[in-house]
Backbone:
């Protein structure tokens, strides 16, 4: 007699997304942009964020927590929070992700940073979405945020370049012939020391 067949439970995979971007900045600078509140508030949040409403609390270590909140221009409040699951400075950040309005829809984000030429290959993998609609909204949001992060990194690099250029172009002090001769004669003595 044949045994009755038992139906196997259907394996359901929850939607995920992966975004990759080469950014002209070192992994250290990008890691700091993700893990230091004063850096994060410079690029995080949608274009509709109300000026001055962004706040961030970050304890970037395994088991540490984060909370990021902001208001939009219509006055609606948004807050996302989670726990860091794994943190390898300048290499990887793994954290849970849940909006305050839907804490039961927790998902998981992994950000990896890999040196790539003079810049960094940033890979963002967000998994365990509640449904495809949530995934699609987050894909639009993360794309916008990575665009803003890339612009911030570019402006920092540009400012650093201009500072270095300005420092290199500092005018030399004009001195009398006697001062120049005395300084020139002191050089061999300085080289011996």
Residues:
């Amino acid at each position: 007699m044949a045994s009755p067949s038992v139906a196997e439970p259907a394996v359901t995979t929850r939607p995920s997304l992966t975004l990759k971007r080469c950014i002209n900045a070192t992994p250290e600078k990008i890691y700091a942009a993700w893990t230091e509140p004063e850096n994060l508030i410079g690029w995080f949040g949608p274009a509709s964020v109300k000026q001055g409403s962004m706040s961030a609390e970050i304890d970037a270590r395994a088991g540490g927590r984060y909370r990021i909140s902001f208001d939009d221009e219509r006055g609606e409040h948004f807050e996302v929070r989670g726990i860091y699951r794994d943190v390898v400075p300048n290499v990887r950040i793994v954290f849970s992700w849940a909006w305050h309005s839907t804490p039961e829809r927790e998902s998981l984000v992994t950000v990896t940073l890999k040196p790539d030429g003079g810049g960094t290959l940033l890979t963002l993998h967000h998994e365990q979405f509640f449904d495809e609609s949530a995934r699609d909204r987050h894909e639009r949001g993360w794309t916008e945020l990575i665009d803003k992060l890339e612009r911030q990194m570019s402006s920092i690099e540009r400012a650093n370049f201009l500072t270095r250029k300005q420092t290199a172009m500092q005018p030399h002090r004009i001195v009398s012939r006697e001062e120049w001769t005395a300084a020139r004669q002191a050089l061999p003595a300085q080289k011996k020391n």
